Amino acid sequence: MAWASSRHDDIAAWVELTLLLEAAAGHLGDDDPWFADGHGILTALLRAYTAHQTVTVVTDTSTAAVVEIMVAPVIEDAFLRHENRMRFLQYALAHDEDLRDDPAARRLHAALSRRSAGSQAPAPAGEAADRGKARRWHLLAHHIPPADFATFVEETPAHILDHLELALRSHEDVLATAADAKYGRLMARLTGQLEESRDWLPDVADPFSFLVEATVRYAFLCYDIGRKMGGSFTEYLRLRDKDNKKQKVDEALFHQHYREVLAVSALFRVVNSEVIDRGGGRVDILVSFGTVQFNVECKIEEDDASEAGLRHYVAQAAEYQNTNVSFAVLLVLDKTVGAEGAVNVFESIWVEKVQREGEREPCHVVTVRVPGGRDNPNLLRPAQPAGTASNVP
To answer: Has residue 332 got a pLDDT over 60?
Structure first.
């Protein structure tokens, strides 16, 4: 059957070409959102884009030119019609280990850059060397068209590029790199409630938001930190210490730990503890942004740490804000955590409104509850459903 092998190879090669083009065709339509496996989509398009170079029966024949002329522009158009697809390819070239040095991906990107610039001139000679520079000045690379970026960085002194890159960066950009959807939803909920206050002024909203974010992150720390990693300083977060002895936890130790966490944040110069002559009493933590000040009241609850049970503490936090803007924080260490475990952090942060008779505006108190005196996670058991008898004799 040796006489049939050549014909068989031709048929197999044409089948391969057909399958490549069919796989790519499914992602060329404008209605395809590309929400599926991104790597798979890009790989299918790149295989079809260079089919004239890889399929045996097409290579070294006049068919190669026909396939290239008919297929390549169609695939390029699929990218050019949608900016998000262009960015998809650029991101893959910068971050995907499999595609970063793929000749097909580089060739497609170069062709798209030429067509985007309205010129058929070849890509800049320094393009391959600019991948490292695009990582150094990634925001500049994002704002400058790819066809112009290589030339721009070659002609501009490095120190000027550094200044431009820094000018484009912001606090929001940094936070976006570590975005957490559920955390973001929590902060959006809190902000939406705080915005209802007439005191939510520009010089007030920004610093209080920063304090709330720092306190929420402290709560995440308390939820996650282990006995060994936290050391004896955070031993109060567990039920017993390593020697299995009863622990004594007082408010001073609790709010001192909170203060230490704030002290290593951007708030380290504006945090004070045990401030006297404030609202007729002594404030646990006072955070001062010039004339705008916020108090953080720290409490330990051993009987009832429910929302209703903690409500009687918010009046004290509001009292300390009587001569300043109507925002405060109540931080509670919950010593009532049972054998079934602690309520999750997202359900342990809320806003209470304190409005006394004779006041037109309520004071908004952000309440943050963190679990203390917890048992080891491996000893926890789910609570018995209501009406279910326990099997324990």
So the answer is: yes
